Amino acid sequence: MMRSKINFQILIATMHRENFDFLYAMFPHHSLIDLDIIVVNQTTSNTILSSERPTIKVINSFERGLSKSRNLALQHATSDWCLIADDDLVYLKDFEKQIENGFTTFPNSGLIVFQVESKKHCLHREYPEKSILQLNAFQKLNICSVEMLINRRIIYNKVVFNEYFGLGSQFFNSGEECVFINDIEVKTNKSISFYKEIIVQHPSLSTGNKYGGSKWYFNKGGVFTKVFPKSFHLWMLIQILFDIKQGKMKINTIFKVYKEMIIGSVTLGKINQ
After folding, report:
1. Is residue 209 in a domain?
2. Which of 22, 112, 167, 190 could form a disulfide with 66 if both were Cys (CB 3.0 to 4.6 A apart)?
3. 208 in a structural domain
4. pLDDT at residue number 170
5. Domain range holding 136?
6. Quick one: 103 and 185 in the same domain?
7. pLDDT given at position 211
8. Where among 201, 226, 261 does a domain terminate?
9. Secondary structure in 3-state letters for the chain
10. Block means of pLDDT (10 residues each) for the chain, length 273 residues?
11. Are residues 104 and 183 in the same domain?
């Protein structure tokens, strides 16, 4: 069997695919033979993706939900390190070298965060000024899934993506990253690290909800309650104060916003009963 030339796996979530055209767009600087890819294709029986390539494994799933897709990919993974990916990314020419540098620098971390840029070569968000072994609570709240390299050796049989959260969930359609990261720390006692290198371009990072919308705050209420069960009211207040300071929320909407977060919190409580 032909082996890839990298020692980590790339876990890609996609939908309704029948061919590998999207992979060529994702990796314009690489040969697919040199990569180790697992594709979870959420689809129907009429649209099936198949692979005869030794370095590309395909799982066709008839379920819905991004977290379900991530978990299915992790179940089929065999590498110690797994890079989370979406199907609209474009990986940089030397991304695999930066990934390997990252896990060589932080071999015992539960998860390593890398930088993402837009097509205009602007960083997706504000990142720490240098590589860090352990991110703080505020830094961890901003992590998105396509920045994440998972130490599967450490999380195996201990941590999965919570399927109540994430795009396509019937409850909270964002926040799966925060919950997943928190579970890694709680269940493995391992660091969440940051390696200061750009690995990928993303055209339009989004949770599917408009920032500041009712659903966005509802999701935040659920996430804060899950991640900070003893202090979620404090984190709701911090979010409100931050949004006011940043001009993303008007003072006269405070009670409405707080109510939406409380509804999210109560919803999570009902689910967990």
Report:
1. no
2. 167
3. no
4. 93
5. 9-201
6. yes
7. 67
8. 201
9. CCCCCCCCEEEEEEECCCCCHHHHHHCCCCCHHHCCEEEEEECCCCCCCCCCCCCEEEEEECCCCHHHHHHHHHHHCCCCEEEEEECCCEECCCHHHHHHHHHHHCCCCCEEEEEEECCCCCECCCCCCCCECCCCHHHHHCCCHHHEEEEHHHHCCCCCCCCCECCCCCCECCCHHHHHHHHHHHHHCCCEEEEEEEEEECCCCCCCCCCCCHHHHHHHHHHHHHHCCCCHHHHHHHHHHHHHHCCCCCHHHHHHHHHHHHHHHHHHHHHCC
10. 79 96 96 96 94 95 96 97 97 97 98 93 92 96 96 97 96 96 97 98 64 87 97 97 91 94 97 79
11. yes
What type of residue is 230?
K
The single-letter code of the amino acid at 140 is K
pLDDT at 2: 56
**Predicted local distance difference test score (pLDDT) of residue 209:** 52
